[in-house]
Amino acid sequence: MLHSASSRLPLPRLPPRRLRLAPAFSMASSLAILRPSAPAPLAGRARATAPAAARVRSRFSSARVSLSSEVAAGADALFADYKPTTAFLFPGQGAQTVGMGAEAQSVPAAAKLFNQANDILGYDLLDLCTNGPKENLDSTVISQPAIYVTSLAAVEVLRARDGGQDVINSVDVTCGLSLGEYTALAFAGAFSFEDGLKLVKLRGEAMQDASDAANSAMVSVIGLDSEKVQQLCDAANEEVDENERVQIANFLCPGNYAVSGGVKGIEAVEAKAKSFKARMTVRLAVAGAFHTSFMQPAVSRLESALAATEIRTPRIPVISNVDAQPHSDPDTIKQILAQQVTSPVQWETTVKTLMGKGLEKSYELGPGKVIAGILKRINKGATIENISA
Hints:
Blueprint: H1 27-34, H2 50-54, H3 68-71, E1 86-90, H4 108-121, H5 125-131, H6 134-137, H7 140-159, H8 164-170, E2 173-176, H9 180-187, H10 193-212, E3 216-222, H11 226-237, E4 246-253, E5 256-262, H12 263-272, E6 280-283, H13 296-307, E7 318-319, H14 330-340, E8 345-346, H15 347-356, E9 361-365, H16 370-378, E10 384-387
Helix pairs in contact: 4-7, 4-10, 7-8, 7-9, 7-10, 9-10, 10-13, 11-12, 13-14
Protein backbone atom coordinates (compact mmCIF):
# COMPACT_ATOMS: atom_id res chain seq x y z
CA MET A 1 0.00 0.00 0.00
CA LEU A 2 1.44 3.36 -1.01
CA HIS A 3 1.02 6.35 1.22
CA SER A 4 -0.78 9.40 -0.09
CA ALA A 5 1.08 12.66 -0.56
CA SER A 6 -0.81 14.22 2.33
CA SER A 7 0.44 11.55 4.71
CA ARG A 8 4.09 11.99 3.88
CA LEU A 9 6.39 12.80 6.76
CA PRO A 10 9.10 15.45 6.38
CA LEU A 11 12.25 14.29 4.62
CA PRO A 12 15.69 14.52 6.19
CA ARG A 13 18.03 17.28 5.03
CA LEU A 14 19.74 16.27 1.79
CA PRO A 15 23.03 17.95 0.94
CA PRO A 16 22.57 19.13 -2.67
CA ARG A 17 26.32 19.46 -3.23
CA ARG A 18 26.79 15.71 -3.07
CA LEU A 19 23.96 14.90 -5.45
CA ARG A 20 26.04 16.27 -8.28
CA LEU A 21 27.87 12.92 -8.57
CA ALA A 22 26.52 11.05 -11.56
CA PRO A 23 23.70 8.99 -10.02
CA ALA A 24 23.45 6.74 -13.05
CA PHE A 25 26.77 5.11 -12.18
CA SER A 26 26.26 2.93 -9.12
CA MET A 27 28.10 -0.17 -7.97
CA ALA A 28 25.32 -2.09 -9.69
CA SER A 29 25.88 -0.35 -13.00
CA SER A 30 29.61 -0.96 -12.91
CA LEU A 31 28.99 -4.68 -12.38
CA ALA A 32 26.54 -4.70 -15.25
CA ILE A 33 29.22 -3.22 -17.48
CA LEU A 34 31.71 -5.83 -16.32
CA ARG A 35 29.27 -8.74 -16.65
CA PRO A 36 27.71 -8.90 -20.16
CA SER A 37 25.02 -11.41 -19.15
CA ALA A 38 23.57 -12.32 -15.74
CA PRO A 39 21.88 -15.34 -14.99
CA ALA A 40 14.32 -17.33 10.84
CA PRO A 41 12.98 -14.67 12.49
CA LEU A 42 14.68 -11.29 12.48
CA ALA A 43 15.46 -11.77 16.17
CA GLY A 44 16.30 -15.01 15.54
CA ARG A 45 40.83 -9.43 2.79
CA ALA A 46 40.54 -10.31 -1.39
CA ARG A 47 43.54 -9.13 0.63
CA ALA A 48 46.28 -7.52 -1.42
CA THR A 49 49.22 -9.72 -2.23
CA ALA A 50 52.17 -9.20 0.09
CA PRO A 51 54.28 -7.36 -2.53
CA ALA A 52 51.37 -5.05 -3.38
CA ALA A 53 50.60 -4.40 0.27
CA ALA A 54 54.23 -3.57 0.93
CA ARG A 55 54.08 -0.89 -1.73
CA VAL A 56 51.24 1.02 -0.10
CA ARG A 57 52.75 4.37 0.78
CA SER A 58 49.66 6.50 1.31
CA ARG A 59 48.30 7.66 4.64
CA PHE A 60 45.53 5.10 4.16
CA SER A 61 47.75 2.13 4.93
CA SER A 62 46.74 2.28 8.59
CA ALA A 63 43.15 1.56 7.57
CA ARG A 64 44.02 -2.06 6.82
CA VAL A 65 42.90 -3.75 10.00
CA SER A 66 43.66 -7.32 11.04
CA LEU A 67 41.72 -8.87 13.88
CA SER A 68 42.70 -12.45 13.12
CA SER A 69 44.34 -12.86 16.52
CA GLU A 70 41.06 -12.06 18.21
CA VAL A 71 39.18 -14.79 16.33
CA ALA A 72 40.97 -17.47 18.31
CA ALA A 73 40.62 -15.71 21.63
CA GLY A 74 38.00 -16.51 24.27
CA ALA A 75 34.37 -15.83 23.53
CA ASP A 76 35.15 -14.72 19.98
CA ALA A 77 36.19 -18.22 18.89
CA LEU A 78 32.67 -19.69 18.77
CA PHE A 79 32.48 -19.73 14.96
CA ALA A 80 36.18 -20.28 14.22
CA ASP A 81 35.55 -23.70 12.63
CA TYR A 82 32.28 -22.91 10.84
CA LYS A 83 31.26 -25.13 7.91
CA PRO A 84 28.92 -23.19 5.59
CA THR A 85 26.36 -24.84 3.33
CA THR A 86 23.66 -22.19 2.73
CA ALA A 87 24.23 -18.41 2.90
CA PHE A 88 22.09 -15.31 3.03
CA LEU A 89 23.92 -12.40 1.36
CA PHE A 90 22.75 -8.81 1.75
CA PRO A 91 23.52 -5.91 -0.63
CA GLY A 92 25.10 -2.57 0.17
CA GLN A 93 24.74 1.01 -1.00
CA GLY A 94 24.44 1.21 -4.78
CA ALA A 95 21.81 -1.54 -5.01
CA GLN A 96 18.91 0.84 -4.42
CA THR A 97 16.38 1.40 -7.19
CA VAL A 98 13.11 3.31 -7.39
CA GLY A 99 10.28 0.80 -7.02
CA MET A 100 11.90 -1.38 -4.41
CA GLY A 101 9.68 -2.28 -1.48
CA ALA A 102 6.49 -2.44 -3.55
CA GLU A 103 6.38 -6.26 -3.62
CA ALA A 104 6.79 -6.39 0.16
CA GLN A 105 3.46 -4.63 0.70
CA SER A 106 1.57 -7.81 -0.17
CA VAL A 107 3.19 -9.59 2.79
CA PRO A 108 1.94 -8.21 6.14
CA ALA A 109 5.13 -8.99 8.08
CA ALA A 110 7.22 -7.25 5.42
CA ALA A 111 4.90 -4.24 5.18
CA LYS A 112 5.07 -3.89 8.96
CA LEU A 113 8.83 -3.28 8.77
CA PHE A 114 8.29 -0.20 6.60
CA ASN A 115 5.69 1.13 9.05
CA GLN A 116 8.10 0.61 11.93
CA ALA A 117 10.83 2.34 9.93
CA ASN A 118 8.71 5.46 9.44
CA ASP A 119 8.46 5.93 13.19
CA ILE A 120 12.22 5.56 13.68
CA LEU A 121 13.34 7.60 10.66
CA GLY A 122 10.73 10.35 10.86
CA TYR A 123 9.85 10.23 7.16
CA ASP A 124 7.91 8.00 4.77
CA LEU A 125 10.54 5.48 3.68
CA LEU A 126 8.17 3.38 1.58
CA ASP A 127 7.11 6.39 -0.47
CA LEU A 128 10.75 7.20 -1.24
CA CYS A 129 11.53 3.58 -2.11
CA THR A 130 8.59 3.13 -4.42
CA ASN A 131 8.24 6.61 -5.92
CA GLY A 132 11.63 8.33 -5.50
CA PRO A 133 12.77 10.74 -6.71
CA LYS A 134 15.92 8.82 -7.55
CA GLU A 135 18.16 11.71 -6.45
CA ASN A 136 16.77 11.46 -2.92
CA LEU A 137 16.86 7.66 -2.81
CA ASP A 138 20.50 7.68 -3.98
CA SER A 139 21.62 9.93 -1.12
CA THR A 140 23.65 8.24 1.62
CA VAL A 141 21.28 9.25 4.43
CA ILE A 142 18.29 7.61 2.72
CA SER A 143 19.74 4.77 0.66
CA GLN A 144 21.34 3.03 3.65
CA PRO A 145 18.13 2.74 5.73
CA ALA A 146 16.17 1.97 2.55
CA ILE A 147 18.37 -1.00 1.60
CA TYR A 148 18.47 -2.29 5.19
CA VAL A 149 14.68 -2.29 5.53
CA THR A 150 13.99 -3.62 2.03
CA SER A 151 16.50 -6.45 2.48
CA LEU A 152 14.93 -7.59 5.75
CA ALA A 153 11.51 -7.26 4.14
CA ALA A 154 12.78 -9.68 1.49
CA VAL A 155 13.37 -12.23 4.27
CA GLU A 156 9.68 -11.93 5.16
CA VAL A 157 8.68 -12.23 1.50
CA LEU A 158 10.64 -15.47 1.34
CA ARG A 159 9.16 -16.70 4.63
CA ALA A 160 5.65 -16.26 3.21
CA ARG A 161 6.39 -18.52 0.22
CA ASP A 162 5.85 -22.27 0.20
CA GLY A 163 8.98 -23.80 1.67
CA GLY A 164 10.36 -20.37 2.54
CA GLN A 165 10.67 -21.06 6.24
CA ASP A 166 12.60 -24.24 5.45
CA VAL A 167 15.08 -22.20 3.40
CA ILE A 168 15.48 -19.71 6.24
CA ASN A 169 16.04 -22.54 8.71
CA SER A 170 18.75 -24.01 6.47
CA VAL A 171 20.88 -20.85 6.46
CA ASP A 172 24.07 -21.43 8.47
CA VAL A 173 26.14 -18.36 7.50
CA THR A 174 25.38 -14.79 6.49
CA CYS A 175 27.19 -11.64 5.45
CA GLY A 176 26.58 -8.37 3.67
CA LEU A 177 28.43 -5.91 1.49
CA SER A 178 29.45 -2.93 3.68
CA LEU A 179 26.04 -1.64 4.86
CA GLY A 180 24.73 -5.17 4.32
CA GLU A 181 26.77 -6.38 7.30
CA TYR A 182 24.26 -4.61 9.55
CA THR A 183 21.41 -6.39 7.76
CA ALA A 184 23.18 -9.72 8.20
CA LEU A 185 23.69 -9.07 11.91
CA ALA A 186 20.01 -8.24 12.33
CA PHE A 187 19.00 -11.43 10.52
CA ALA A 188 21.38 -13.39 12.76
CA GLY A 189 19.82 -11.92 15.91
CA ALA A 190 22.82 -9.85 17.03
CA PHE A 191 20.48 -6.89 17.48
CA SER A 192 16.82 -6.08 16.91
CA PHE A 193 15.43 -4.70 13.65
CA GLU A 194 14.77 -1.40 15.40
CA ASP A 195 18.23 -1.07 16.95
CA GLY A 196 19.85 -2.00 13.64
CA LEU A 197 17.86 0.65 11.80
CA LYS A 198 18.86 3.29 14.34
CA LEU A 199 22.51 2.35 13.82
CA VAL A 200 22.14 2.41 10.04
CA LYS A 201 20.40 5.79 10.18
CA LEU A 202 23.24 7.25 12.24
CA ARG A 203 25.85 5.54 10.04
CA GLY A 204 24.40 7.13 6.90
CA GLU A 205 24.26 10.56 8.52
CA ALA A 206 27.79 10.28 9.93
CA MET A 207 29.23 9.12 6.60
CA GLN A 208 27.44 11.93 4.78
CA ASP A 209 28.79 14.52 7.21
CA ALA A 210 32.31 13.09 6.88
CA SER A 211 31.95 13.27 3.10
CA ASP A 212 30.79 16.88 3.27
CA ALA A 213 33.91 17.77 5.24
CA ALA A 214 36.28 16.71 2.44
CA ASN A 215 36.37 16.81 -1.35
CA SER A 216 36.52 13.08 -2.04
CA ALA A 217 35.09 10.41 -4.33
CA MET A 218 35.12 6.75 -5.42
CA VAL A 219 35.70 5.07 -8.76
CA SER A 220 35.44 1.47 -9.95
CA VAL A 221 38.43 0.24 -11.94
CA ILE A 222 37.28 -2.39 -14.41
CA GLY A 223 39.45 -5.07 -15.98
CA LEU A 224 42.53 -5.23 -13.73
CA ASP A 225 43.61 -7.57 -10.96
CA SER A 226 44.11 -6.19 -7.46
CA GLU A 227 47.90 -5.94 -7.78
CA LYS A 228 47.61 -3.83 -10.95
CA VAL A 229 45.00 -1.60 -9.29
CA GLN A 230 47.38 -1.10 -6.37
CA GLN A 231 50.13 -0.12 -8.82
CA LEU A 232 47.69 2.31 -10.44
CA CYS A 233 46.94 3.83 -7.02
CA ASP A 234 50.65 4.12 -6.26
CA ALA A 235 51.25 5.93 -9.57
CA ALA A 236 48.35 8.32 -8.93
CA ASN A 237 49.55 9.01 -5.39
CA GLU A 238 52.94 10.14 -6.70
CA GLU A 239 51.23 13.06 -8.44
CA VAL A 240 48.98 14.43 -5.68
CA ASP A 241 49.30 15.84 -2.19
CA GLU A 242 49.04 13.47 0.75
CA ASN A 243 45.51 14.59 1.59
CA GLU A 244 44.37 13.69 -1.96
CA ARG A 245 45.79 10.17 -2.04
CA VAL A 246 43.81 7.08 -2.96
CA GLN A 247 43.57 3.41 -1.98
CA ILE A 248 41.62 0.30 -2.88
CA ALA A 249 38.47 0.54 -0.77
CA ASN A 250 36.39 -2.39 -2.04
CA PHE A 251 37.97 -5.69 -3.04
CA LEU A 252 34.86 -6.87 -4.87
CA CYS A 253 35.84 -9.51 -7.43
CA PRO A 254 38.46 -10.15 -10.10
CA GLY A 255 38.38 -7.26 -12.54
CA ASN A 256 36.33 -4.93 -10.35
CA TYR A 257 37.93 -3.01 -7.51
CA ALA A 258 36.69 0.29 -6.10
CA VAL A 259 39.21 3.03 -5.31
CA SER A 260 38.53 5.82 -2.81
CA GLY A 261 40.33 9.07 -2.04
CA GLY A 262 40.59 12.76 -2.73
CA VAL A 263 39.01 14.02 -5.94
CA LYS A 264 42.40 14.96 -7.45
CA GLY A 265 43.69 11.49 -6.65
CA ILE A 266 40.61 9.90 -8.21
CA GLU A 267 41.06 12.06 -11.31
CA ALA A 268 44.68 10.89 -11.53
CA VAL A 269 43.49 7.27 -11.36
CA GLU A 270 41.00 7.91 -14.14
CA ALA A 271 43.65 9.63 -16.28
CA LYS A 272 46.18 6.81 -15.85
CA ALA A 273 43.85 3.83 -16.01
CA LYS A 274 44.18 3.21 -19.75
CA SER A 275 47.98 3.16 -19.55
CA PHE A 276 47.64 0.36 -17.00
CA LYS A 277 45.40 -1.55 -19.45
CA ALA A 278 42.20 -1.02 -17.46
CA ARG A 279 39.08 -1.67 -19.51
CA MET A 280 37.38 1.42 -18.08
CA THR A 281 36.71 3.41 -14.93
CA VAL A 282 33.26 4.22 -13.56
CA ARG A 283 32.81 7.07 -11.09
CA LEU A 284 30.45 5.88 -8.35
CA ALA A 285 27.35 7.70 -7.15
CA VAL A 286 28.39 7.92 -3.51
CA ALA A 287 28.94 10.94 -1.31
CA GLY A 288 32.67 10.50 -0.76
CA ALA A 289 35.66 8.25 -0.09
CA PHE A 290 34.00 5.42 1.81
CA HIS A 291 36.18 2.81 3.54
CA THR A 292 39.18 5.10 3.93
CA SER A 293 40.42 7.46 6.63
CA PHE A 294 38.27 10.17 5.01
CA MET A 295 35.48 8.54 7.04
CA GLN A 296 37.37 8.87 10.34
CA PRO A 297 35.02 11.63 11.63
CA ALA A 298 32.19 9.08 11.53
CA VAL A 299 33.98 6.58 13.76
CA SER A 300 33.50 8.28 17.12
CA ARG A 301 29.78 8.77 16.45
CA LEU A 302 29.41 5.11 15.55
CA GLU A 303 31.39 4.04 18.61
CA SER A 304 29.06 6.03 20.88
CA ALA A 305 25.95 4.60 19.25
CA LEU A 306 27.31 1.05 19.34
CA ALA A 307 28.27 1.39 23.00
CA ALA A 308 24.64 2.23 23.79
CA THR A 309 23.24 -0.66 21.70
CA GLU A 310 22.60 -4.15 23.02
CA ILE A 311 24.50 -6.58 20.81
CA ARG A 312 24.22 -10.32 21.37
CA THR A 313 26.20 -13.27 20.04
CA PRO A 314 24.78 -14.04 16.57
CA ARG A 315 22.96 -17.36 16.25
CA ILE A 316 24.93 -18.15 13.06
CA PRO A 317 28.30 -16.87 11.78
CA VAL A 318 28.27 -13.35 10.32
CA ILE A 319 31.35 -12.71 8.19
CA SER A 320 33.01 -9.32 8.74
CA ASN A 321 33.93 -7.00 5.89
CA VAL A 322 37.06 -5.95 7.79
CA ASP A 323 38.87 -9.29 8.04
CA ALA A 324 36.60 -11.82 6.28
CA GLN A 325 36.15 -13.69 9.58
CA PRO A 326 33.10 -14.46 11.77
CA HIS A 327 32.98 -12.90 15.23
CA SER A 328 30.88 -14.01 18.17
CA ASP A 329 31.96 -11.68 20.98
CA PRO A 330 29.59 -8.66 21.17
CA ASP A 331 32.37 -6.24 22.13
CA THR A 332 34.47 -7.40 19.18
CA ILE A 333 31.50 -6.97 16.86
CA LYS A 334 31.09 -3.39 18.08
CA GLN A 335 34.77 -2.74 17.45
CA ILE A 336 34.53 -4.26 13.97
CA LEU A 337 31.50 -2.18 12.99
CA ALA A 338 33.20 1.05 14.09
CA GLN A 339 36.34 0.18 12.10
CA GLN A 340 34.39 -0.94 9.06
CA VAL A 341 33.75 2.55 7.65
CA THR A 342 37.49 3.27 7.40
CA SER A 343 38.65 -0.24 6.42
CA PRO A 344 38.74 -1.78 2.93
CA VAL A 345 35.90 -4.19 2.22
CA GLN A 346 37.29 -7.73 1.92
CA TRP A 347 34.40 -9.16 -0.11
CA GLU A 348 36.44 -11.19 -2.59
CA THR A 349 38.23 -12.98 0.23
CA THR A 350 34.90 -13.56 2.00
CA VAL A 351 33.31 -15.21 -1.03
CA LYS A 352 36.37 -17.31 -1.85
CA THR A 353 36.60 -18.45 1.77
CA LEU A 354 32.94 -19.46 1.90
CA MET A 355 33.24 -21.42 -1.32
CA GLY A 356 36.47 -23.01 -0.19
CA LYS A 357 34.75 -24.18 2.99
CA GLY A 358 32.03 -25.93 1.01
CA LEU A 359 29.23 -23.37 0.49
CA GLU A 360 26.57 -24.96 -1.71
CA LYS A 361 23.79 -22.39 -2.18
CA SER A 362 23.39 -18.65 -1.67
CA TYR A 363 20.45 -16.27 -1.61
CA GLU A 364 20.74 -12.54 -2.29
CA LEU A 365 18.02 -10.78 -0.33
CA GLY A 366 17.09 -7.22 -1.24
CA PRO A 367 17.16 -4.87 -4.21
CA GLY A 368 19.19 -5.60 -7.32
CA LYS A 369 21.49 -8.45 -8.31
CA VAL A 370 24.86 -6.89 -7.55
CA ILE A 371 26.01 -9.71 -5.29
CA ALA A 372 24.94 -12.38 -7.78
CA GLY A 373 27.10 -10.66 -10.39
CA ILE A 374 30.08 -10.65 -8.03
CA LEU A 375 29.68 -14.34 -7.16
CA LYS A 376 29.51 -15.32 -10.80
CA ARG A 377 32.70 -13.36 -11.50
CA ILE A 378 34.47 -15.24 -8.72
CA ASN A 379 32.98 -18.65 -9.52
CA LYS A 380 30.85 -19.17 -12.63
CA GLY A 381 29.43 -22.32 -11.10
CA ALA A 382 28.15 -20.61 -7.95
CA THR A 383 24.47 -21.21 -7.19
CA ILE A 384 22.62 -18.08 -6.09
CA GLU A 385 18.98 -17.00 -6.11
CA ASN A 386 17.72 -13.44 -5.71
CA ILE A 387 14.82 -12.72 -3.35
CA SER A 388 13.57 -9.20 -3.94
CA ALA A 389 11.00 -7.14 -2.13
